[in-house]
């Protein structure tokens, strides 16, 4: 473990996060599952703090989350979660079974590569400006539904209590924030996605997931704007 050389004490992990960011939410869940204490460094995306010179030194692409572990600075939730998985073996996030492991990678990547980028702040701003404010929600719902339809098919023969069995793995870490945000922020009707709706209920019972929820973060505003 990285130490603070003057005191010989382990340095606390630092997480650059925004309460409502689903990508940050994934890393918060992984940190909680692994029982890792961390300092929360809030980056207000609506105020554009992700583009500040200070934050661009941490992550040159200007997105949260980013993790600082001593001298190691990492960005991108998938890279961060895999780093945590290798460094901190408590609560393994990958099953040993090769097929199940591959399904976990696939589900996580459907969320992180084929759904979330299409609902990112920059994309929604662009649609708002070029097409119109009313186009945002149908756009997001269409792309989430496409991903959720695929996830329902992918997971139907693998799911147990959670996405790939009765233990919480990587797929769950990525699915929970996406489902939560789709319901809360994007008003998605989950009727067509019964498996994902059931997983959502199961995630809501878990302390590691509850503690990572947007409303339990230090930068959660008292009154929310409700914008997408
Ligand atoms: N692939 C990256 C995506 C990061 C990302 O898109 N973060 C969003 C929040 S979930 C963000 O910072 N958006 C700011 C913006 O669009 O300006 C990851 O998984 O960490």
TrEMBL record:
Q: Key word Transferase present in the record? A: yes
Q: Identify the residues that the record assigns to the GST N-terminal domain, covering every copy.
A: 11-92
**Pfam families per record:** GST_C_3 (PF14497), GST_N (PF02798)
Enzyme Commission number, as recorded: 2.5.1.18
Keywords, sorted A to Z: Transferase
Which PROSITE patterns has this protein been placed in? GST_CTER (PS50405), GST_NTER (PS50404)
Q: Which reaction does it catalyse?
A: RX + glutathione = an S-substituted glutathione + a halide anion + H(+)
GO MF terms, alphabetically ordered? glutathione transferase activity; maleylacetoacetate isomerase activity
Q: What family is this protein classified in? A: Belongs to the GST superfamily. Zeta family.
Q: What is this protein called?
A: glutathione transferase
């Amino acid at each position: 473990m990285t130490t603070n050389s003057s005191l010989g004490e382990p340095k606390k992990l630092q997480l650059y996060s925004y309460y409502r960011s689903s990508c940050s939410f994934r890393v918060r869940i992984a940190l909680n599952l692994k029982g890792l204490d961390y300092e929360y460094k809030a980056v207000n995306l609506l105020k554009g703090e992700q583009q500040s010179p200070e934050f661009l030194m941490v992550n040159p692409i200007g997105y949260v989350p980013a993790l600082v572990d001593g001298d190691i600075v990492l960005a991108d939730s998938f890279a961060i979660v895999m780093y945590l998985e290798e460094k901190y073996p408590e609560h393994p996030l990958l099953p040993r079974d090769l097929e199940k492991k591959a399904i976990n990678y696939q589900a996580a990547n459907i969320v992180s590569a084929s759904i979330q980028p299409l609902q990112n702040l920059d994309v929604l701003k662009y649609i708002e400006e070029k097409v119109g404010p009313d186009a945002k929600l149908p756009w997001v719902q269409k792309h989430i539904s496409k991903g959720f339809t695929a996830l329902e098919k992918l997971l139907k023969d693998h799911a147990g209590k959670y996405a790939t069995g009765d233990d919480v793995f990587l797929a769950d870490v990525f699915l929970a924030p996406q489902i939560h945000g789709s319901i809360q922020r994007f008003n998605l009707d989950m009727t067509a996605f019964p498996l994902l709706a059931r997983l959502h209920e199961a995630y809501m019972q878990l302390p590691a997931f509850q503690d990572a929820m947007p409303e339990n973060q230090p930068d959660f505003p008292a009154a929310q704007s409700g914008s997408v």
